[in-house]
Design a protein that fits this description.
By secondary structure, the chain is an alpha/beta fold. It is about 40% helix and about 25% strand. It starts with a helix and ends in an 11-residue tail after the last strand. The structure holds S-adenosyl-L-homocysteine.
Length: about 250
């Protein structure tokens, strides 16, 4: 017994040379396992919330495009909001993302994406990167997404989140969305997630023949409209009444 004790102490001593006793190692391993179990549990909980969100708020309100539904099921919306808001990330409403801006309600993201009718070859222009959530949804459906944000710190954060999620076909740029992205035009689809008073001519010019624009238009309350371009003819269809943050002109100079 005594002998055993001595042996044990000796073993502890040898191990503690590098700061680790056997118990120490065991406790740390348990702590690490607890931590990763906790992270996995949180991940599972968010996934359950997300699937419920798609079922009730998206499919339940008539969105049918299987690609849109799949993207909404897969993209972790909670990673696009502040840690304090993560538990509300799958609720049926917009959430603040700082700088007076918001991430849109999930249903509106799905509705706008379905309305845009994106195919896998499409190049899409997005105005208003914000958190990058809408860009991440688009990145799963389109070939390339060119997204413009006027507030630099939002663009920086969105780039990081999109990079973490390996959305490498999203290209974020800080500039004024009223000018579009002429160097990358023409686009098969343009999606605008801030509201101008009227549709900017530059955006219509940068849409390809056969292309679409989904855009909220109006000062305080807006109509979400779909514009389709066939050669020089542009047709407009009202989709829904909506409320978006204003599309602000960036001051030059
Ligand atoms: N699509 C975003 C929601 C964006 S909210 C998301 O999924 O999180 C609208 C965004 O449009 C804001 O980030 C705002 O800064 C940006 N915005 C407003 N006016 C703009 C302009 N003229 N050009 C580019 N971005 C603009």
């Amino acid at each position: 017994m005594v002998h055993g004790d001595v042996e044990n102490r000796g073993a502890d001593k040898v191990q503690s040379c590098c700061g680790k006793t056997a118990r120490n190692i065991r406790e740390r391993t348990i702590m690490r396992t607890d931590k990763s179990n906790g992270a996995q549990e949180a991940k599972n909980r968010f996934r359950t919330d997300r699937l419920r969100m798609v079922e009730q708020q998206i499919r339940g309100r008539g969105i049918k495009d299987p690609h849109v539904l799949k993207a909404m099921e897969e993209v972790p919306r909670h990673l696009f909001v502040a840690p304090d808001d993560q538990s509300s990330a799958y609720d049926d409403n917009p959430l603040p993302i700082g700088y007076g801006q918001t991430i849109s309600q999930p249903y509106i993201v799905a509705l706008m994406t379905e309305t845009l009718h994106i195919t896998a070859h499409d190049r899409v222009l997005e105005i208003g990167t914000g958190s990058g959530y809408q860009s991440a949804i688009l990145s799963r459906l389109a070939k390339d997404v060119f997204s413009i944000e006027s507030i630099a710190p939002l663009a920086d954060r969105a780039r990081l989140t999109l990079n973490d999620l390996a959305c490498h076909n999203v290209h974020v740029r800080v500039s004024d969305g009223y000018e579009g992205w002429p160097d990358k035009a023409p686009f098969d689809g343009v999606i605008v997630t801030a509201a101008p008073e009227t549709v900017p001519d530059e955006l219509i010019e940068q849409v390809a023949d056969g292309g679409r624009i989904v855009i909220p238009v109006g000062l305080h309350y807006q109509e979400l409209i779909l514009l389709t371009k066939e050669r020089t003819v542009v047709r407009s269809h009202k989709i829904a009444d909506v409320r978006f943050v204003p599309m602000v002109r960036k001051e030059k100079g």
